[in-house]
DNA sequence: TAGCTATGACTAA
DNA sequence: TAGTCCTAGCTAT
């Protein structure tokens, strides 16, 4: 399930599998059929991610813009022998299928909230609407900070606002705030610049690790299951976390109960003891 | 078979 | 803020 690290990892995988190759483009489900017909037989130049948006570039400045939404997936299969029978028939609702002409790779897109053929201008417009992406090497923390410092909105909401900062989802939000002992409802404008820079730097490191491993692991070495002698986390995304989806369970660090509350339709998770509610500086 | 849930984001009011 | 859309897997009936 997709936060920014998933999309960057995917962009890399698609580039390795298809860049410079001619591909068969189809839409077994039919909902991308017209665009697929336009792209079919064309050459893939590469793929790149900006936040949670993915762009697969074809020759002649044509892009497939993909947003996976809550449960989309883009499965890339590569290093195949090239035998035709290694590419199985599509299963389920496959919106987009790419098969390299040489038969060495294929990829199936399912469940995406967006899959559309766009021009360079349209691609640029999506990027322009997005905040800086911590996973892009040229990203700067300053535009994000300019938004956060002016806002009375809670930092928990600002971190997920893709126009403030691109690529953070619910897991990284919850975990980043825990790691910095920050209450999710703390107003953006109450942060100091130094605090935000530390948050940003940590996010860059955590998400880069996510790209490397394909999972979200946020616990520090001293809090791993091995270090603490506790059972490892068992659930659908595999990583070791402090608070995400652990409501009602004891905090790994202090033992207090992990809390949850809805903010803007999404679940917050935090430890009330490790992340005390912020009070204005006058009474701090 | 129906209902619910989920790491997201859009639109209308 | 509520409603809607995208899909698959799990649980309840």
UniProtKB/TrEMBL annotation:
Cofactor(s) essential for the protein: Zn(2+)
Its EC top class is: lyase
Q: Which segments constitute the FPG-type domain?
A: 242-276
The chemistry this enzyme catalyses reads: 2'-deoxyribonucleotide-(2'-deoxyribose 5'-phosphate)-2'-deoxyribonucleotide-DNA = a 3'-end 2'-deoxyribonucleotide-(2,3-dehydro-2,3-deoxyribose 5'-phosphate)-DNA + a 5'-end 5'-phospho-2'-deoxyribonucleoside-DNA + H(+)
Q: Which GO terms describe its molecular function?
A: class I DNA-(apurinic or apyrimidinic site) endonuclease activity; damaged DNA binding; double-stranded DNA binding; oxidized purine nucleobase lesion DNA N-glycosylase activity; oxidized pyrimidine nucleobase lesion DNA N-glycosylase activity; zinc ion binding
Q: Which InterPro entries match?
A: DNA_glyclase_Znf_dom_DNA_BS (IPR015887), FPG_cat (IPR012319), FPG_N (IPR035937), H2TH_FPG (IPR015886), Ribosomal_uS13-like_H2TH (IPR010979), Znf_DNA_glyclase/AP_lyase (IPR000214), Znf_FPG/IleRS (IPR010663)
Instruction: State the name under which the record lists this protein.
Output: DNA-(apurinic or apyrimidinic site) lyase
Q: Which organism is it from?
A: Nocardioides panaciterrulae
């Amino acid at each position: 399930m997709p936060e920014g690290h998933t999309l960057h990892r995917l962009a890399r995988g698609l580039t390795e599998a298809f860049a410079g190759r001619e591909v068969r483009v189809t839409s077994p489900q039919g909902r991308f059929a017209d665009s697929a017909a336009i792209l079919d037989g064309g050459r893939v130049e590469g793929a790149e991610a900006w936040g949670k948006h993915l762009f697969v570039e074809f020759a002649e400045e044509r892009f497939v813009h993909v947003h996976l939404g809550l449960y989309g997936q883009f499965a890339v299969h590569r290093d195949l022998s090239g035998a035709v029978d290694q590419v199985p028939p599509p299963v389920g609702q496959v919106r987009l299928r790419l098969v390299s002409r040489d038969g060495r790779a294929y990829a199936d897109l399912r469940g995406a909230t967006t899959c559309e053929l766009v021009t360079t201008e349209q691609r640029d417009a999506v990027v322009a609407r997005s905040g800086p992406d911590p996973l892009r090497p040229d990203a700067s923390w300053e535009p994000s900070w300019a938004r956060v410092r002016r806002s009375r909105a809670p930092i928990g909401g600002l971190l997920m606002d893709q126009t403030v900062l691109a690529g953070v989802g619910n897991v990284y939000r919850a975990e980043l705030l825990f790691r910095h002992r920050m209450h999710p409802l703390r107003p953006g404008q109450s942060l100091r610049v130094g605090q935000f820079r530390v948050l940003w730097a940590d996010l860059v490191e955590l998400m880069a690790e996510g790209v490397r491993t394909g999972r979200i692991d946020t616990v520090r070495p001293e809090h791993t299951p091995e270090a603490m002698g506790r059972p490892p986390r068992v659930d659908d995304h595999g990583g070791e976390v402090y608070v995400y989806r652990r409501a009602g369970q004891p905090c790994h660090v202090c033992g207090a109960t992990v809390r949850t509350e809805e903010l803007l339709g999404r679940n917050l998770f935090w430890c009330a003891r490790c992340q005390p509610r912020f009070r204005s500086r006058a009474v701090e």
